[in-house]
Input
Amino acid sequence: MEKKPFVTKEQLEEIARKHPTPFYLYDEKGIRENARRLNEAFAWNEGFKEYFAVKATPNPFILKLLQNEGCGTDCSSLTELMMSEACGFTGHEIMFSSNDTPPEEFALAGRLGAVINLDDITHIECLEKTLGTIPETVCCRYNPGGVFKISNNIMDNPGDAKYGMTGEQIREAYRILMEKGVKYFGIHSFLVSNTVTNEYYPMLAKILFELAVELKNETGADIRFINLSGGIGVPYHPDQEPNDIMVIGEGVRKAFEEILVPAGMGNVAIFTELGRFMLAPYGCLVTRAIHEKHTYKDYVGVDACAVNLMRPAMYGAYHHITVMGKENEPCTHKYDVAGSLCENNDKFAVDRMLPKVQKGDLLVIHDTGAHGFAMGYNYNGKLKSAELLLHEDGSVELIRRAETPEDYFATFDFCGMFQNTGK
Ligand SMILES: *Cc1c(COP(=O)(O)O)cnc(C)c1O
Output
């Protein structure tokens, strides 16, 4: 499918006059419409709720927007919990799905009344010690081990993943938790990320629904929800076929009616913890070509670098690039699109066919609304960019300012040593 930016070159040039590149731009309209489609796809399930994975795009404005569409938050760290609290999420609007969890994070999750999702059986003791008691509702994360296949394509190796409990452990955990007075239970599992197929969720649902029936029969536990977690992907490459969330919702409904309803569990709520699917296509990194270089290869040097978007450097991930204003020109030039880090993997694209790029051109790096800004770091003392939100009425709001050298130096305690430098 052809990838089109959600803004025009004229809009971007206008925005760039006020907010220098590089910056992230998010599309409120796209985010809202997609969240509504998700809710519609699962409207057959009375208790359905999406808990947005905060780590994907940890920005309060984005969280408030999703809250307004009925979403909760899924947190896995102290600051994500703090951000959720500050945005007004409370109690069971917060899912705490963490692993290797520091006790102080359980303490805050407990104080907020969040649903706590235990990654390991030994965390029961840690949780009880930290809170002094175990909450009435607890979720356990399951890892079936082995390999996970969809139509003969091996998708991933849960057996190699650090997350979750074995089948035996989750049964034991349920028994222990029941003895400790837990009344309501949930099951969670995350087997594969970025699946671009409509089959993943229905297959995962079948595994978890069957497990739920077994757990109920074996332990008598009152299972209230099943959390399908994240993992629905987006087509980063134009050749990929996007997921159809309506088909996915329908596939999960079918498994629900085949497995849970006959077992008398038709009141179980379905939860999701999507991050990428909720935001990735509705955010882009906007950067400007500032140099070109022709040596053994042809390079376009841009003003963003891997600290602004790590996925290409870290995973060799493909992100589509549009040279603004040249959408209809033929892609006749082969470029490496590079940032300025002293790291040869600081490239947003390698051997990418693009129209001829000139200094000053604006480049849109697509599908960076999730796991983009969020994975930023400060290598080479580079600073994180601003984040902007394009509202439905066309206005633009600064939702996080760019970092300044003062921010970078703020964690040194050198009594203002840097105050007069760089001026
Ligand atoms: C990362 C994560 C998610 C979100 O994953 P996406 O691939 O962005 O959908 C959800 N739940 C947990 C526990 C996670 O770690």
